[in-house]
Amino acid sequence: MPRARGLIPFQLVGRVLLHAILVGVTAGIAGSLFFAALELAEHELFIAVTGYEPLRAKGEAVLSSAHIGAFRPWLVLVLPAFGALVGGVLTTKLAPETRGGGGDAFIRAFHHLDGNFRRRVPVVKALASIFTLGCGGAGGREGPTMQIGGAIGSIIGRALRVDTRERRILLIAGAAAGMAAVFRTPLGAALLAVEVLHRDDFEADALIPSILASVVSYSVFIYFFGESTLFAHAPRYPFIPSHLPLYAALALVVSLVATVFLRTLHAVEHTVHRIRLPLWAKPALGGLALGALVTPLLMLLGPRFDRPGQGFGMLGAGYGAAQIAITGAPWLPSGWTAVHLLLVLLATKIVATSLTVGSGGSAGDFGPSLVLGALTGGAFGRAAELLLGDPRIDPGAFALVGMGTFYGGIAHVPIASLVMVCELAGSYDLLVPLMLCEGIAFVALRHSTLYRAQVATKRESPAHRGELIVDVLRSIRVADIVIRSRPFVSFEARTPASIVVERIAACEWQDTFPVLAEDGKVVGTIDAEILRATATSPELSGLAIAHDMMASPASVSEAEDLHHALQVLLELRVRELLVTDAEGKIVGILDESDVTRAYHDATAELESAGQ
Q: Transmembrane region positions (predicted)?
């Protein structure tokens, strides 16, 4: 008995969920190892060697700190180039798809590669990112972890020999699991993985597997490192309706800064692309420029704040800079000096991230985007507090809202970023300001995107091409396209074969000929192929009648949709179908060209409506 349309295939769902758990465990272990290895590499390759003191968020330092010696600025100048060079060689020679942040590669694999990553991708991406970020590259670990987790899901899917649809779901679940492990926002990570693939759509089928994989991965991570949020924050952020205009203004400012960041990033990409250097050497060029940018600033700002060697969040993801934007710091002065410092860090971080990621370095853009939003919001909140003299303005609230708004706007993931900030804050106190700012930024950044591999909707994705054809065909009834005025040849059941042959031979366009009973109902069809068999047999031609030559009717009801009609055409291997009414009487003939034309017209109408 065929399954009724619309019922959930429970066996498939159960299998996918079990696979998602396996992906979550594996990605959780891989994410934990990557997190620990990256922090260890940062200590051994950069901090202990240069005397650079990183500015960290509350939940970053999960391993014991290495001994920090005297500050050596000249090493800060060259080490980012060395790490980027090693990463560039690894990615270019072993797995070119691991160049860059990782988010675009994940999206591209879903849409264009049937959810496939090569088996070497997780290892190459991890090693390249460890060298790039461990030596001071200005990028995040979440983007690489998204690609690592997605590749793990893809590899597990191939090992289990699942079909393409399930493999794509496991790819998404793996990306969500990787993000959940290192960023510690399991629900937000699951939503991000299903939302980031499209600008105006999301992958609903993968949501539950992604949530399950994220929960499992997050549990694995906190088993090793303990439970903590990435950022320290105030216990409560009370909602004050009169501050909503300020949040609306913040959304506009964030959108402006986000546009500057995207243009800077793309300008660096374009410039590096035009430079005639081997592909593997280009990340090193970005690393050298990064060192030249950051070293003088460290030497200038460190003594001023009595913190020689202090990184101020310029290198790495920069979560420490976001932390001081949210909570401040004992060494951070109050007043306009704090605003000025946050703005300097904002400008520096825009350029630093663009140099690392835009040159092809294996570093993520997710973390820096959050930091840029937090710095924008923190500076805006402190400036508003000083200008308006309102003690109720909490700069930390504006920093958190700016954080979510910035990434949500440029990545077109407003729901995911909203939930992530609520998870980071430990409450939904900022839900209303976040909703307002996300909506404004979504509109303001409508035509800008951080991920060029994104497509607008499922309609533009090769992953859903077959599904969309079915959806379009199911929306069209046979009655709406059958040409009732088109003349056709039919026969009564007792029509002699000689007349049948004669009339079929004279018909130029028709291949299927209805045989009718006395009451006009269809009782069978004669295919044009019969003409050839009858013409070579004079005896048969003289004895047979239409009833003897007919087969079962190749027909479809006018009440059916075109998807059903196409299935009948394919199953019977015919080019035409008789269209009948509720009484079984013929109203016309439907051929392949009618179906093709109707589909073309419907998709053209959808495309014009979407423009």
A: 12-38, 71-90, 169-194, 206-225, 246-268, 280-300, 312-332, 396-421
- DSSP of 477-529, one letter per residue? BHHHH--TTS----EETT-BHHHHHHHHHH-SS--EEEEE-TTSBEEEEEETH
Q: State pLDDT tens for residues 372-402.
A: 999 999 999 999 999 998 889 999 999 999 9
Among all chains, which residue has been given the structure tokens 């060209």? 593
Interhelix angle 431-444/244-274, nearest 10 degrees = 40
Tokens 């004279």 belong to residue: 506
Contact (CB, 8 A) for 45 and 129: no
Beta bridge partners of 579: 556, 588
**Element spanning 105, H or E:** helix 103-112
- pLDDT tens profile 450-509: 999 998 887 778 877 666 666 677 888 888 888 887 888 888 877 887 787 778 777 777
Length of the chain, in residues: 611
Residue where a domain terminates, one of 428, 446, 467: 467
Cβ partners under 8 Å of residue 454, min gap 6? 107, 196, 197, 198, 199, 412
- Total-model pTM: 0.81
Domain ranges, residue 225 = 10-467
Question: Could you identify the residue written with the tokens 């040159």?
Answer: 359
Spatial neighbors of 244 by CB under 8 A, at least 6 apart, are 432, 433, 436
Q: Provide the domain count of the chain.
A: 2
Token pair listed for 297: 């600033």
What residue type is 410 in one-letter code?
Answer: I
Other Cβ atoms closer than 10 A to 122: 28
- Residue carrying structure tokens 């694999």: 109
